Amino acid sequence: MSKRFSKILISSSSALCFFVASFSYALPQRITEVEGISEYKLDNGLQILLFPDQSKDTVTVNITYRVGSKHENYGETGMAHLLEHMVFKGTPNHKDIPKELSSHGARPNGTTWTDRTNYFETFSASQENIDWALDMEADRMVNSFIAQKDLDSEMTVVRNEFERGENSPFGVTLKRLMASAFSWHNYGKSTIGARSDLENVPAERLKAFYTKYYQPDNATLVVAGKFSTEKMLAKIDKYFSKIPKPNRQLPSIYTVEPSQDGEKEVTVRRVGDVQLYASAYHIPAGSHPDFAAIEVLSSILSETPSGRLHKKVVESKLASRTFGMNFQWADPGLMIFGAQIDQSADLNKAALEINTVVENTLKKPIDKKELDRAKRKLIKSFELRFNSSENVAKELSEWVGMGDWRLLFLNRDRIEAVTVADVQRVATKYLQRNNRTSGKFIPTKKPERVDIPLVSDLNSMVHGYVGRETISAGELFDPSFENIDKRSHYSQLSNGLKLVLLPKETRGDVVSAKFSFNLGTEKSLHSKADIGDAVGAMLQRGTRKYSREELQDEFDKLKSSVSIGGSATGISVSINSKRDNFIKVLDLVAHVLKEPAFDKSEFEQYKAALKVDIEQSLQNPQSLAFAEYSRRHRDYKPGHPLYVASFAEALVILDNLRLQDLPKFHKGFYGSQYGEIAVVGDFDSAKVKSKLDELFGSWDNPSVFSRIERPFKALEVRNTEFDTPDKENAVFVATLSIPISEEHQDSPALLLGNYILGGGFLNSRLATRLRQKDGLSYSAGSFLRSSALDNRTALGIYAICAPQNLTKVELGFKQVITTLLKDGFTEEEILSAKAGLLQGTKVSRSQDRELTGQLIGNSYLGRTMKWHQSFEARLNALTPDDVVEAMRKHIKLDDFSIITGGDLSKSKN
Question: What is the model's pTM?
């Protein structure tokens, strides 16, 4: 679980049971409503936020507890995050929560941050699923197993997560920077905690922390998606009102970080390939009125390519990449800027230039053009996020942690009202040398302090806030195979380009589209893979009409999120826009595809950034292992379009890449007649088809396209090790190839068997063994990749662990495979896996952006949704014997090749 995953069991005491049985409660009390989100409250203190959305056949349940790493005491660092893991261990009524999440086809997770912890799951909108999710969350609010035996195994998993973070130079540097920036406030402590605390905290202390904070009066339940408000309130009342309000007062946090007396410096020295520099400045809490201007300021300074840092530091070749971020927390936080710097470059010179740019707004004031660009980008992000009820449901956790969910809207209003003077004022106030934590300490005769203002009265800010008119809700769309086929219109443009249109009313009038254009042949693309990749990467770096910065501005003005890229074998476009802007977005996308500038400066920036990425991979065990995995399954000679170069080879290829080759490739291969376009959402079909025909119906590719066939090739059984000294996390990969395609009669059985082997959410055979039982791996699972056209399927198995545990992980993997092939599957496993897989695909069909991808594939393969319906019917008819027979037929333990990466000096011990 990263930062990034009802019956109430009371006691055997008859007196206490009588108390619960006679506990009286009322229906949730309505509090307020803002832009479609309604707030209610139970007598026990539980805050409820409901966000009905009939446009998607899914429901998201997200419960947020107002407790995070800042609430931890001495010896308890990492406890909030550790507890997040522990509540997945089950309750008396939900003994195997990972299994339940998988069987219901949920997309779940739990996350821990400084001010809050949350748990969410998105699932298909059935009454049975809703009842299950509410019952589970109510039960684990107060009845979770917090047992020493579970802590013993989960501690090692969390420690492995800690070790994974220690592999990242950026992550380690950021932790040290924040620890130095905060002398007293707990924001200076990493959410993952100290290793010693993770290894030694007793279960009874964790249980006390859980009992103290996991209570209804410290929680906010958000439900978003397809449901009736009245019925949902009744269900919430049923499952949560029985939990009594605790008889305790939560302590307030009164620690205030004092003003700095001067700049601070911290240095990290570890094995690595890239230099980093970052500078942090103290800023007010996310609820403070200044924060909107701070967000705008951060964008002005750090955006790529329009930001001041990029222009002054990257374009002058002092660094390969710059970044910026601001932490929007309940208490005063940090604003951070920095850069990735090639190891051959001058770190001190880059650091000096970064500090000069950041702290130089008095000499070079903020202008109106910068302000407008930054505000457009921020407001666009808000509006696009709000078009998804699922995203809003999860986003609300951050604002609940900050103090009040309505701050989400208030912050938007504040951003819209920000002026040049506001941004200049906060830049002058907070971006000062003596408020900086970075690389140096210099004594000063006269102390210069920056007093960070506090929020004195949060309630007065949001009291009576009503927000704006709720955006369009969209239609009640049925994501069944039959309905998707019925609503989808297949056709071709003038040059044969295939088109699929599925118009429907969507929340916020959103339109999603994907383009896929195929290029070249195996012969014509020989020795051109690196050139094709570079052409694709350069598309959004500027056109003949717009610079990279101006192009981003144009898409922001149209409030659209657009990704355009490609490789030697194809072009890909992904669009998320709105009805009113979609036609204009298509015009702009066509311009980008047809008239790239191939600017020399941007080309050099592309090469510099890619060089840094490759160099970082040279010491990354996960990158090395999965690159080797790809090389095994794409066993071609150098020059072949599908050849996978080693990282050392990639650096040589990159060094030899020449700008003049890019426009030649574009002229010789780019066109649209060999491709597909899918559009789903709120649009006028006739207008969209006419515009697409105008833009792409005659944009012909001068080079013939012929699919590069990839027939089955048995992998040579060969084990490979990569030694990455001083890396505290290692990776294990096992793989084999199978001579069948997606059309093969055994394909559904292998898919279902793999789901049980290493899919689902924490309850697969591999995860149960390596994570739940042995406590060796934070992440363990498997994946199956079947070709639709070639008789080729790849099975991959993976796990991360400490280097010294690689041998144990390999042993566990082999025992799991051996037991599976020997004993097969239970009826319960098969039924649960079917439910999880089928509900998961239904959730996918409910997401327009995922549906466009499926329609693109159907168009290319000549399929309709009936093919998928038939495939799922075959899968649903499988018995345990069918599945294990297919697994035994195609999987042999001796056929696996094993790839490992890590610090071999530790693994040998």
Answer: 0.85
